[in-house]
Amino acid sequence: MSHATSAPSQPKPPRPLPRILTVKTAYRLTPNMIRVTFAGPELAGLPEGREGANCKLMLPEPGESREGFVARLRDGRQPLRRTYTVRHYRPDLQEMDIDFVAHGDTGPASRWAHHAQPGDFLGFAGPGPVKVAQFEADWYLVAADPSALPVAAATLEAMPRDAKGVAIFEITDAADRQDIDAPAGIEMHWMVHPDPLNASDQQERLIRSLDWPDGRVQTCIAGESGVIRSLRAFLHQEKALARADTYISGYWKIGLVEDEHQAMKRAEG
Q1: Which band of pLDDT confidence, cut at 50, 70 and 90, is reported for residue 16?
Q2: What domains are defined for the chain?
Q3: Membrane spanning segments where (predicted)?
């Protein structure tokens, strides 16, 4: 009597390793923002048109060699991961810019960027989808603190050149103002809030004071979670904006590191 035997199960293919990106330059874009430019063939094939999209950065330990870092990734011993934004991608040059808020050595990503030198490396996964994929509004509202300045700037630069609206940036120092290629019809406001670890309501006060337009409104708003919670209630409940038209996201929370903040967001659903 013969017995059918099942085919041996095939081992799962190994998960692809993240791209290992190499620093070309790192410099102070403004007093409180560090721009790191990555360059090299590892960027080949990266999706285009994803400026403003999230990516995950995997940070090596201080002094860790590239070989040791790659071996750790292969072994499944996960490095620290942080969420950042693709600011610029130049496929013809195989270059990408990522901007880091400069907190000195108080956080692992800021510490890495603060000390980054040409030839340094990290792991990269992504990018994800852009936050505003279609520009179909009569009027746009963009608001950001330093953590969200890259996504806000990239969104403004991707807008149709005849777009109209308001952009509000809350920065730590007047010298942190950046040149952004926004449409001429976007009214730009720069407000200084010198201590980001103390809550600020000046973005909300300005938004509430605006002459609200007729027609369809789309938003790109991100920043500290307490500010975002209040603005979300205003936009969805008082202004009754369609949720599909409102990208509004908490990127960090006063008093929490990223892992704690992500856990809080998951718990809130």
Answers
A1: confident
A2: 19-125 (2.40.30.10), 139-268 (3.40.50.80)
A3: none
